Amino acid sequence: MCICNGGAAVSKLQVLVVDDEWNMRNLLRIYLTREGFEVKEATNGYEALAMAAKHQFDVILLDIMLPDMDGWQVCKKIRENDNVAILMLTARSETKDKVHGLGIGADDYLTKPFEQEELLARVYALIRRSAIAQIAVKQEPVLEFGHLRILPEGREVYIHNTPVEFTLKEFDLFLTFAKNGQRAFSREELVGLIWGSEYEGEIRVVDTHIKNIREKTHRAELGFNPIQTVWGVGYKWNGAGTSK
To answer: According to the UniProt entry, which residues carry 4-aspartylphosphate (predicted)?
Structure first.
């Protein structure tokens, strides 16, 4: 994967643009092809899901207001099988909408109208973050806590030998806590580590992701709450599980 900026060729990078408005798709295609991206387009949610299942994209630009199902539903469906970077595009700027989108697996959120420079900066940031995450997990040992196994290299989680599906950000959070034992993290620290310095949204998005992690591990009958709340500080790994 080439992660170049400043007009360098990045022809190997694949982008899916999902929007029912031709003018917006055309504008995004112009912006992205000038940078060397290969762009595919979908006009509705079902078409987007079919293309996401067929192709391996580096980034998906996903509009929320679609004619058949909304972008949130599409994002949630994609996240069931794919950790591709997802940038939500919308004319809605309410904080609760941003938190909801990020909570179900979106990686970033851009409000229309936007400038070409901001769009490209966010796309490149998502690609860099994804590449760094892939490099960081290579050769890392498997972490085991009783019936819980975390495989950093494969980005997999197993409870009672059954796989548990996490979104990209959920896994990154989960692994950060598991690797750092009893260290307590503030929400601000976690946002910086997982979302990056470019993130400008609400820090409460951390709470939403941790709630999702707790619900998934509870449904899988882990037997202990893996992430403990540290009142007045933030969160830390729960010592009820001991790594082998």
So the answer is: 63
